[in-house]
Amino acid sequence: MAENIKLEIVTPEKAVVSEDVQIVMSPGTEGEFGVLAGHTPFLTSLKIGTINYKNSEGKEAFVFVSGGFTEALPDKVTVLAESAERRRDIDMSRAKAARQRAEERLAVEHKDVNVIRAEAALSRALYRIKLAETKL
Fold it and tell me: In 3D, which of 27, 13, 106, 113 has the Cα closest to residue 66?
């Protein structure tokens, strides 16, 4: 049996995940990466996406993250995320409302609309919706 590694996913507001896992797959800004026990230490930034991992029993789990940083050590992975939600905790009506607001902001050509923020909000909403709707 493979050795486990500790996974910690935290936001400024709360700890989202703290458990022993077999593997962690994460959306790095330079590409997706995986971490197993004994991995070479590194630090990288995250993009908006999904962290998936297998818990110590081999059950797969998913967490939405909207950027942040990951530190991988031989025995621990720490994710400091701007925001994070387990798949089961995603509020679909809230995500769809956020998508609608972002689409409306992007549809209006107005000097007061911050296009970069609206695009980021739309991206976050779309990732949440996609993850929540995924059949596993």
Answer: 27
Q: What distances in angstroms separate CA 106 from CA 74, 89, 97, 109, 129, one per listed residue?
A: 44, 27, 14, 7, 19
Q: Hey, where are the domains in the chain?
A: 5-87, 91-133
Q: Considering the domain 91-133 in this protein, what is its CATH number?
A: 1.20.5.440
Q: Tally Cβ neighbours within 10 Å of residue 99.
A: 18
What was the pLDDT predicted at 90?
84
Give 34-37 contacts, CB < 8 A, sequence gap 24+.
Answer: 35/5, 35/72, 35/77, 36/2, 36/3, 36/5, 37/2, 37/3, 37/4, 37/5, 37/74, 37/75
Residue pLDDT, tens place only, 58-88: 999 999 999 899 999 999 999 999 999 998 8
Please check whether residue 69 is in contact with residue 79, taking contact to mean a CB–CB distance below 8 angstroms: yes
Say which CATH architecture domain 5-87 belongs to. Sandwich (2.60)
